[in-house]
Design a protein that fits this description.
single chain, mainly alpha, Rna Polymerase Sigma Factor, Chain: A, Arc Repressor Mutant, subunit A, 7 helices, elongated
Length: 179
């Protein structure tokens, strides 16, 4: 019963932090760790929070093992001087809304989805984790701060940068039809 109740949330956190390739392994390791540590569980937090923390720690550890180094060039601070934003950090020209009704439009939508997935894989790990946990996982900002072990302002910056990069990919695809 506990497995059924919390497994999908644990899977979402592992997927967001460690990625789709090793998420299942991370969750499995987290369950083993939780079972070993269960006698030490003091109940100061909910069981779900405790399990999510174990998964987050396992995922971070596994991610560090998988990626021993991160290029500092991958972390760019261009959003503050980006010409697409005005002095109040609002879009100068927001992206237009689009809907696909024809088979051709649906094909383009699939191509765009593939393009977005390709570029998501290029995001720095902390940005990707924040984006997946917040937008796909629906976690609150407090939960993100707890899982990623960063401040709320840092989470907002991570989300902004990740979303901005995704929007750039979408805009480029819509203008050129190329990934």
């Amino acid at each position: 019963m506990v497995f059924k109740r919390y497994h999908s949330a644990m899977q979402a956190v592992a997927y967001a932090i460690a990625g789709p390739v090793i998420a299942d392994e991370v969750v499995q390791e987290a369950w083993f760790s939780a079972l070993k540590a269960l006698p030490k569980f003091e109940g100061r937090s909910s069981l779900k929070s405790w399990l999510i923390r174990i998964v987050a720690n396992e995922a971070k550890t596994r991610r560090r093992k998988e990626n021993r180094s991160v290029s500092l060039e991958a972390i760019q601070d261009t959003w503050a001087t980006d010409p697409r934003f005005n002095e109040n950090s609002h879009w100068k020209n927001p992206s237009s809304q689009w809907h696909g009704d024809t088979p051709e439009d649906l094909l383009v939508a699939d191509e765009l989805k593939d393009c977005i997935e390709k570029h998501l894989a290029l995001l720095p790990e902390n940005q990707l984790a924040a984006l997946r946990l917040r937008d796909a996982g629906g976690l609150s900002m407090d939960e993100l701060c707890n899982i990623l072990e960063v401040s709320s302002s840092n989470v907002r910056v991570l989300l902004h940068r990740a979303r901005d990069k995704v929007l750039k990919v979408i805009d480029h695809f819509q203008m050129t039809g190329e990934c």
